[in-house]
Amino acid sequence: MNSPFGNPDRPNSYIGKTVPRPNAGRLVQGRGCYVDDMVLPRMVHVVFVRSPHAHARITGIETEAAMAIKGVLRVFTGADIAEVCTPWVGVLAHLKGLKSPPEHAIAIDRACWVGEPVVAVVATTRAAAEDGAALVEVDYDPLPEVTDMMTALDGETPVLHPDMGDNLAFQRLHEEGDVDAAFATAHKVVEAHFKTGRHTGVTLEPRSILVDWNPGEGQMTAWHATQAPHMIQVVLAEHLGLPESRVRVICGDVGGSYGIKVHIYPDEIATAAIAKIISRPVKFIADRLESFTTDIHARDHEIWGRIAVAEDGKILAFDIDDWTAIGAYSVYPRTSAIEGNQVVNLCGGPYDFKDYRAKTTVVFQNKTPTSQYRAVGHPIAVTVTEGLVDMAAAALGMDPVEIRRRNLFADDAYPAISPAKMRFEGLSHHASLAKLVALMDYDALRVDQADAKARGIVRGIGIASFIELTNPSPFMYGIGGARISAQDGCTVRMDPDGSIVAASSVTEQGQGTEAMLSQIVAEGVGVPPSQVRIITGDTQSTPYGGGTWASRGAGIGGEAALQAAWALRDAILQVAGAMLQCAPETLDIRDGAVVDMADGADRMPLSEVGRIVYFRGDTLPKGLPRELVQTRHYTPADYPFAFTNGVQASYVEVDTDTGDVKLLKHWCVEDCGRVINPQLVDEQIRGGIVQGLGAALFEELHYDAEGQLLNGSMADYLVPMAGEMPDMIIAHVETPTLESDLGAKGAGEAGTAGAAAAVMNAINDALRPFGGGVTAMPFTPERVLRGLGKLQD
Amino acid sequence: MKASVGGYARATDLRHALDLLAASDGMGRVLAGGQSLIAALNMRLSSGDLLIDINRIDSLKGVVLAGDRLRIGALTRHAEIATDPLVAQHAPLLQKATDLIAHAAIRNRGTIGGALAHADPAAEFPACVLALDATIQVEGPQGSREIPAAEFFVDVFETTIQEGEILTAISLPIQEANERQVIHELGRRSGDYALAGLCIVRREARHRIVCISVGPKPELAIAAMARLDEGDEDGAVAALRDGLDPPSDTQASATYRRHLVGVLLQRAIADLNGATA
After folding, report:
1. What is the reported pTM?
2. ipTM over cut 0.90
């Protein structure tokens, strides 16, 4: 369609401009209100005794000493909770063959990972609950652990869940074309083994929930740091035996989520169950140490990959064998199979080639469950794909930019379907690559690299193209039977003073959703953003919707907001036309006032429309609609997902004596369609890149062979910090999706998708003259030195 | 987690602190900057401690020059060490070390006395004071005594400070003309504990070398020092690597650490021979 947002001089042109965040002042002044800031009358605190064993039978629980602590009110075992809370199973119908046993909120009889809740202690203070928890005695009979991913399916490995038959949770093989023939006849075949480090999200605010059960109303209210309030409402209702309508989930300020807070956690559900049992508000705040063993983990993959190329650099085929281990249960309700599934869907994604084979094997193990974390599966697929493409280029003696130019889907190839059967509406790989090459001054950088080498300084340049799945339709979860909404709604109303209130089902996690919504509504209605108040995160007062995940807030929630705002504008102008005795089409709303469409001449302020509608409706023609509240919903329907694309580059310096890698600079050009707020999008990209750089250099959860987490603290699990972060240059190509009027696709995960691969390729570019290379993340100084062959044992 | 503390008392002077410590029945913990202690309490690594806060004791603060020795009060903060002109002139190694210690917020609170009494082998100051041949002054019920740095550190988090004693000051010989003091380390991120580090002091052609993060306590690398005194740089590197039995952990293996200290020594020697050290 012809974009209504193309002309920057149009009236009310807030879409596409950096507009200040409406909640920034409040948050900066320390006026945020997070779950842990909430205090309710008669509120109590719950602390969980957690399994110290990776796998053990629970043979006895002694709670007397805990109950004797002053302030301790109740102690609950798994059996106690199971009386009011049913177990869940994390499978979805469209992930064929995925299996997982029932999981209880608190373990009964058997604990399956270090950190699984075994006993809940409720007390009047958190400190008293901790004192009590320290005195609970649990007898365990250790069972053999399954901890090694690659031997999980071997005959001699114990079966973790005997009822499941084996340790295989899910497997998927996708084959397109004649892969074996392509490899047999290719000019060059390159293969490599990659590992991505197991990590976790490390949100600034830990997981937090406060639940109140009011037996007088039969209503449960949960204040929850969550990405998906409506999904939580469904789950609480289903497993606690309540009507959905009697569960209200309120999501106030949230201190970062990154996908961590979109899952069902046993301790959080147990907290709700306890509130229902004791009819008192119960608060659970995960502390930093228990976060490391109980927040979902992700990215624990080993991948064998092969690429076949022709002499001219044309990619002929990819062959991918991906393995991942997901813990003892598939996480409810989104499952733990999506990550591996995404690797199959996304490998080779930017490239126009024919023959493709990819398999993912997902196994159970006695570790913390894994599930979706920012850019689910993408960093793995991009690492394998871009790593292989660079290795193929090196084998051919071809420049890494050139091999990409010869293989990326042409910018006029759309609509297109990838060998993995992903459907692309419109991407801009070549325009993005061209912009990146210009932005980084690629040729000059190669000269700098050569100059540095002459001075004994080893530097490398790495490129990584990527695609990113955003705006998921019901094809992501709904078709699998999950009550996870892919649509979102927005209700926009005008109050008597002419101010606007918009209630949306997408949520604010600290990333700027409310800023994005306020400027869309401001433009759609025709008022300054400062006149728009936004309500999110309350299942009782916002429309029904999906929330924040899979880079969907702006593309889906934003479109609903735009349509609702336009509808309200039309409704206002209908009243204004009657008041001014003219056709509504001859009027417009600009800067909070009704004006003549033709020349912008002021006719009356919106507050005058409000005064008449709300206080002197008698003066309007009888029967004139005066509905100054409008609601619209939006569901993507033409494509299962709105794919975006982009390309990143990294410039690094490697100390070949110590293995230390210094990030010199990072670039990203990405195409998220319509950019609504350039600053917010740029900072989303930067934040995403930072998490990708964490994957590349720092983040990795280590377990020993007994399933004990070895580095579950901020001292040992290294998150990326400002001191190591390079300057990041961000730019955009805009290919709006034609499916919506707004044209926005997602931007929240693109940075994470490609950053680690760009760094890997940069390090390998630096190491290649020495005959070395690295493919196991994170690239610690030791791994780099070993990649150089400088450490012998 | 919430700390489970047995009690708290703020000492008004050193005598008061010693009395509180004597009355604590072994549960007393001296609270200085609190940058390790408070974290440990908050993780409930220890509980029931009676905290004796020495932060208001003025006699434990400050840096003074006394003849050919520098006296640094135990309560001197890392950030003060970083900017103190006497330290810069007479013990530049300590000043250089502060650049490598954690982050600004921690340096604003952490104290040199606390760092030494805590005796973390991954910390910089314990290695520095040994390389500088300092003495550690402690005060107890029976009066004060001086402990050579070489006899102060016993094991991980363990020193020869006796029950009831408080570390009061560090005394060290001031830098001589032509003396060189160098510290090198490599951490995964700026401010992290080093994977390995190394201090070296060259005084009248004699060298003192102490490594960081490679063993249970800071120790003089005697064999490497002897090689270096003879001018055998490669021999010093080999001797240093051979003499170490560093730990393996999730950050790096013993093999890597052994390699790294050799690289750091090579670089430190280059610094010693340059004009910048």
Report:
1. 0.97
2. yes
